[in-house]
Each structure stands twice: as structure tokens, then as C-alpha cells.
């Protein structure tokens, strides 16, 4: 399978990106044994090259932290830059859209420094990420049936245990 791994970490004064980078590195190690991989980060990307990567990929795995219950600004900017008309979707003279990235799937791996109490007040993570899901669906990219992981940890008490992360990716092998 052809897999595009996106490291959606965006520099932030309170987060250094080690957790997201570790998840991407583990994904590379586990999936690279049996699949073709390409990667990208939120700094220094070329839009034309990123379009080629998306066109090449069968599965896109987005790894990113959730900041203030939303995508990091760098990942949002990347998607705004890359998911462009006539590359990811087309419109006809009447303004009707046609997705151009069909037969592709996505999943994501999110990290969220919070307690379960912090999340109890409102929508779940799936609802928080519904704009991302809608944007990708608009382009024809559908959710993968396999892996979706949300790593929630209390930054003041523990660091997350990533020892089982490789096993989580096993359905993709």
C-alpha cells in the first residue's frame, strides 16, 4: 500500500512536538516494513510536491496534536494550501463540485493533553474533528476502516505509554 504520513505538529510555546514526532517515527518503522511511505511536515513544504504525494497515496495518516479543541494552525494552513480546486476537486459552470481524490482513505492519530474531566463538558473528539472529515470527504477522501487513535493524557501527571502503538498499526499490515 502507498501511505502518506503527515506530521501535523506546529510549533507551540508549550509543546515541543516530541509526542507527535515519536508517533510518526513509530508509524514509519512499523509500516515501512511492508508499505511504500512518503512523509511531510508543516514547515518548508512545496504545494506541487504535496499534491503529487496525495495523488500517489492510497492512505493518508495525519498525526497531530489537538490545540484548544481544534487542528493546529499549521495543519489548517497546509490543508488550505494543498487541497485546492482543480487538484483535489473541480467545479462546473453552475458551481457544482466533483471530488478528484476518490479511491483514497484517511485516518488520523491525535494527541490531547487533557484529563477525562476536561473532555466531559462537551463534544467528543470525533465531533471536534468533523470539519477535517468534511473537508477530506469533499475532495473524495474517505475514512479508513482501520486505525484511528486518540491519545489523551494528563500532562501534569503522566506521559502517555506508546509501547503498544506499533500493535495499533497492525491492521494496516
Distance from first to last alpha carbon = 9 Å
Question: How many domains?
Answer: 1
DSSP strand count: 8
**Percent helix:** 25-40%
Radius of gyration: 16 Å
- The stretches of 5 or more residues where confidence is low (pLDDT under 50) are none
CATH topology: Rossmann fold
Element pattern in H and E: EHEHEHEEEHHHEEH
Largest sheet: 6 strands, parallel
Mean pLDDT: 84
CATH class: Alpha Beta
Strand pairing plus helix content: what structural class?
alpha/beta
Helix count, DSSP H or I runs of 4 or more residues: 7
CATH superfamily: Flavodoxin domain
Q: Which overall shape is indicated by the principal axes computed on the Cα atoms? A: globular
Strand residue percentage: 15-25%
The CATH architecture name reads 3-Layer(aba) Sandwich
Domain Flavodoxin-like fold: 1-153
EC number: 1.-.-.-
Enzyme class: oxidoreductase
Pfam family, one: Flavodoxin_2
